[in-house]
Amino acid sequence: MRRTLLALALALPCSQALHAHEHEHEHDSLGAHEHGVASLNLVVDGNQASLELDSPAANLVGFEYQPSTDEDRATVARVKAAMEQADGLFSFTPAAGCQLQQVDLDSPLFAAQDHDEHDHHDDHEHAHDHSHEHGEHADIEGRFDYVCDAPEQLEALTLPLFNDYPAMQRIQVQAITASGQHGAILTAEQPTLSLD
User: Edge-to-edge strands of the sheet including 156-158?
Assistant: First the structure.
């Protein structure tokens, strides 16, 4: 599956690379970082479907700084829990019978939350030092692995996440399935990618 994801990255059209370069900020290590915009890669390999989402944290939690208030921490926890379930984010064709198997999330905001939950008293001063870095850019990355009972029935991917995250304006989707490569820019008005 990892090789297939690498193939997806290599197969992306040159125009997307040019588009990303045009929008790239001086934050080279983060790549393109545009609020309201995210990227989503889908690879279907046999009965396995894997999604990789990369989004500025502001699209999902409303901010990118380290959570410093109870309200901020509650927002981060709520978004993390929703992403771990994934059913409010992605919807495959029901006939394909795709079931979520594993979720891997990565974000400095989630790391701060995990740090607070596990080591709150041990490292309080260190966490406080970083709680108001409002100038920082933070992304949320997620990998969502599914197993599909009938992958040949996988005709579409719909993104209901637009309903719960209005700051998410568009998502650049690239997909590789048995039927070939697919790509689109999805929005709240057009949240479905045909995989036929």
Answer: 91-92, 156-158, 192-194
How many domains does one find in the chain?
1
pLDDT recorded at residue 20: 41
| Run of H or E including 124 | helix 124-129
The confidence score (pLDDT) of residue 184 equals 97
C-alpha pair distances (Å), 174 with each of 42, 66, 154, 185: 6, 30, 15, 9
Burial 23-47 (b: 16+ CB within 10 A, else e): eeeeeeeeebbeeebbbbbbbbbeb
Q: CA 177 to CA 57: how far, in whole Å?
A: 28
C-beta separation of 145 from 54 below 8 A: no
Domain limits for position 14: 2-194
pTM of the model as a whole: 0.77
